[in-house]
Amino acid sequence: MKVATSDGRSTRKTNLDIRKPKSTDGAAVNELIASCKPLDENSVYCNLLQCSHFAPTCALAELDGEVVGFVSGYLVPETPERLFIWQVAVSPKARGLKLGKRMILDILDRRVCHDVSELHTTITTSNAPSQGVFRSVARELETNVNRKVLFERETHFDGAAASEILWQIGPFERVDVERVAA
Question: Whole-angstrom Cα distance, residue 4 to residue 141?
Answer without folding.
Answer: 34
